[in-house]
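Suppose a colleague, Dr. K., hands you the sequence of a protein chain of 470 amino acids and asks what its three-dimensional shape might be. Before reaching for any lab equipment, you can write down a predicted structure in token form. Begin with the sequence itself:
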Amino acid sequence: MSEKFDLIVIGGGPGGYVAAIRGAQKGLNVALIEADRVGGTCLNRGCIPTKAMIHASSLYREMQEGDRFGLHAEHVSYDYDKICEYKQETVDTLVGGVEQLLKGNKVTLIEGRGTLIPPQGGINAVAVEEETYLADNIILASGSRPAELPIEGADLPHVLNSDGLFALDHAPDSLVIIGGGVIGVEFATVFANLGSQVTILEALPKILDNFDKEISQNLKMILKKRGVDIHTSALVKKFAETETGMVMAEYEEKGKESAAVGDYILVAAGRRPVIEGLFAEGVQPEMNGRYVKVDENYLTSIPGVYAIGDLIGGIQLAHAASAHGIRAVEAICGDSASQNVDVVPAGVYTDPEIAIVGMTEARAKEQGIDVITGKFIMSANGKSLITKEERGFIKVVAEAGTEKILGAQMVCARATDMIGEFTTAIVNDLTVSDMLRSIMSHPTYSEGIGEALEDVHGMSLHTAPRPSRR
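The predicted structure, expressed as tokens, is then:
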């Protein structure tokens, strides 16, 4: 007889394991099916290891620049094996923590690949190898994998995706990155910090193309200052090996044929959902292109079957997937939504960091919304001067009539930590004046938030005067 649960979750990434734990907290009998280690791509091969590499490589760069602070060190070097050990130790600690949380919440962990099969006796069913498990509700959270480019030479040994780059036992002397999105610029940050010659080829007109134009321009200048060669509107045509054993990306840029050569090529041109083997014949839910179609509660066209995270498209972020998982469990339990899943902050862990939430000024205008903005250049921020941060800013977008906060964009130290303040403001319909009621401690980077808010009224204390915008 097949074992039955109240809820089965397929996929143990940040969407799946969070849904499983929340379901158990709600009193459901829950099983989590995962073929690999819990934590998914984010914890094992994405967010966490990338940020660990960024932290280590940034420390190395800062050590080399210590003379700015009157500090001198000779023969500064790095041990790539040790960096990788530190990265893996961080990952292993967090994976172990998730495993303990699942165990502590009495979630049954089933190892293997789960496939949705036809219901048995009117109950939803999942097959894992030769075993069958039943559940009243199922959450699909199989995540995504690196996208493959249909380009000649993409299967060459030195053409890698992010998983393959992490597997290297050394930092390449030179690296060509295909894609100037979040993944591309973060890896560019890591290896440029470590001294690699990095080239970015981006097919769109600018790096971080879906971010505010000013953010893209700012980051491009900073990366170029650190030696990164950036080509936008560059359409890659072919990968090939050179006579010296290196690899070459042939591309067209503004009608001109050219090539970029490196020890390795990293293909960082997006991700695609993992649906292979997820559905047995005759039980695939309604799709929206390559993604699973869901309603506002993440319910698919199959009763009792939900889908979350990268599987449904939209914003591909770990915390978005977690929020989807929580909402799906709430819907299963008949509870109202506890989070606003329409307002999702996003961060890029370059140096300085980048963080955004809500609307940009351009997007608001596209939607016919009259806005007013405030901006503070962080070079006038005391903490930024102390730490000698690169150029940065904080910008706030508010509705003109009500001054309700609509969005914010930040390029500065700790931006990914500070963006939460604006996220809270947006989901709670706070105004500029509401946010200004809080006193910012000094000296902190967060003082820049108050300065940007004051600038909406033309009254920033540490910005050159301008006419009041009331």
